[in-house]
What we know:
Layout: H1 3-29, E1 39-40, E2 43-48, E3 51-57, E4 61-62, H2 66-96, H3 105-121, H4 126-187, H5 193-209, E5 212-216, E6 222-226, E7 231-233, E8 240-241, E9 253-254, E10 257-258, E11 262-263, H6 277-313, E12 323-325, E13 337-339, E14 341-347, E15 353-360, H7 369-377, E16 382-386, E17 392-396, E18 401-405, E19 410-413, E20 416-418, H8 420-424, E21 430-431, E22 438-440, E23 455-461, E24 464-470, H9 476-484, H10 487-491, E25 494-501, E26 504-511, E27 518-521, H11 525-528, E28 532-533, H12 538-541, E29 543-544, H13 546-550, H14 579-587, E30 592-594, E31 603-605, H15 607-647, H16 651-685
Parallel strand pairs: 9-10
Antiparallel strand pairs: 1-4, 2-3, 5-6, 6-7, 8-11, 12-17, 13-19, 14-15, 14-18, 16-17, 19-20, 21-29, 22-26, 22-28, 23-24, 23-27, 25-26, 30-31
Helix pairs in contact: 1-16, 2-4, 2-5, 2-6, 2-15, 3-4, 3-14, 3-15, 4-5, 4-6, 5-6, 6-14, 6-15
Amino acid sequence: MSLLGALQTSLSGLQVSQAQLQITSNNIANVNTPGYSRKTADILTRTIAGQGAGVRLSEVQRNVDDRLLRQLQDHMARLSGQKIQDGYLRETQILFGSLADNSSLSHNITEFGSALEGLSTNPSSLTNRSATVESGRLLASQFNFMSTNLQQMRTDADRLIEATVGTVNTLLSDIHKLNQQIAVAQAVSETLPDLEDDRDRLIGKLANEIDIQHFARSSGEIVILTGSGRALLDSVPVTLTHTSAAQLSPTVTLGSGISGITIGTGGPDITAEIAGGRLSGLITTRDQNLVDLQSQIDRLAEVLRDTVNKLHNDGTAFPPPQSLTGTRTVAAADSPSMTGLFRVTVVDTDGVTVETLDIDLATLAPNNIGQLVAQMNGMANATSSINASGQVTLAATGANLITVNELTSAVTTGNVTYGMGQFLGLNDFFEGGPDFANYISDRVASDTAAIGLAGTLSFDIAGATTNVAYIAGDSLTDIAATINGTAALTAANISASVVREGDGFRLQITDADNDNFTITDSGTLTAQINLRAGVAGTAQRIAVRQAILANPGLVAHAESSAASPLAVGDIAVSSGDGAIARSLADAFTANQSFSLAGGLPQRSTTLASYAGEILSVNAAKADTIGSQIVTGDSFRVALENQIASLSAVNLDEELANIVVLQNSYAASARMTSVISELLDILIDLG
Length: 686
């Protein structure tokens, strides 16, 4: 080998050592940089004409295991979604309290029952009546508070979904830019490992936001798909869109007031496909966990309201009021299915019968609310009308007072049968009862699976009946479509829809004009799906009736006589009668029927026990997710350690490598110096 060849060889050693020192110093400088992977380059022999001509470096390489990185990204997508859910569930536990907490829902229900128990033992005590009203007010306020906060939490989650969608779009755009830079470098046979690190770091962040899968093209670009396989970034990134609602309420659900997450404006809705990341946790929180809790407290408030109002409408205070006004809006032509006897009794201030009227509801002609009011208005000592607000009023004349007794009256619509007084809301304790322009069912698991029932739904609209048949093969969606395809119902502006709620679907039937209609069923559909008047959000609306808040003396504790006949001069009601107060108190210790709601199965239990189950189920769900997070964090640490063992910079190793490289550089420099001296000698000899 010539001296010039030897010089070239020694210079290659200097260059390689210098390049390796640069790589090592860069590793050391980035020892604490998140997402940085250790860089290395192999030393290769350089040959010319088949003979060694020094050394050269391979391309700089990253020490990474793509399989482990993908595993960590998938795991972080699940874990970040669980952590979102955990945060909200812990917040609901604070909101709901614990079973041992004196401010818990279960405790306040028990306190209301105790107040009614006290009223039953001394019904003439105004103090006991005031305590009953205050206890009922506190309970209703707690329902309102819980519902309002649940809906605010849903609103917050919806806003975070919009913000997270924006983060996803930004990350996709940034990854796309790195893709372009890496592809350009690879096209000229260069590598940019630091940019690849940056891209991996951004992909990791993206996996925290939404579940993804990805693969590399030969160009060096990364293609990113959703977990379900929809393209998020190929040649260009897509733009996800979601516009958050101003304020959510119990009646607002995905597709019914909540917009989906779509690919582009008007593109496919991928909300239901998102199974990981913060987005998944926020969607599950907004559309399932908090909706389940709302459904559960709605069911409790509904059963509480109807149980108390049913008994309260069959009772009266002493002295009875001079007038009664319904809480329900009705029209004279409303013609619900009415049977049995309903009694109106006018009494004097001592509770002695002045006049009584027993109305056979089945024989009213025409069979509607207007005729009922006309009969009551025909009494010698009472008047009745439908006021400007559409409420039935019933008032005694002169100094007389008025009472009612449900007797055998039964008004049926959907899956609920009311006494006539309760149907009109003449003596409700709680406001926030159902209206009869809206009907809603319990959830069913599928909107497309056959219900397996056959029968006919009869819609009564102002005395006109329209029949809608359903068959065993019909699904909830089919039944809604049949209702919407019935001309008479369409003409009355009555429509049906299937609303997604939590992990199931509800049937909703609505009159757009807010006119009353009633539904009867020849089969068992209304019973199976619990189709009833009203809309979601009972817990947000329930309240003690304003008239009772203003005058606790109106709390019913006695029952107007059901004696037959009840003659003028007979005692109809007495001051010491605590029969209704006793029945109300007993209702709080007796089992009530609860249909399926928010994951709680159908059951028969007490009001307080059901409230306790709501707290217990929520706590159990929070504990389960909490345990999953603890396990998930342990696995995350193990994965990160495994990745770090391969990819992370080891400072001790790098410092030791510097010593080796220094010696190598010094040796190559010495060789270069010697060869340079020899060349100088040769030149001088020449």
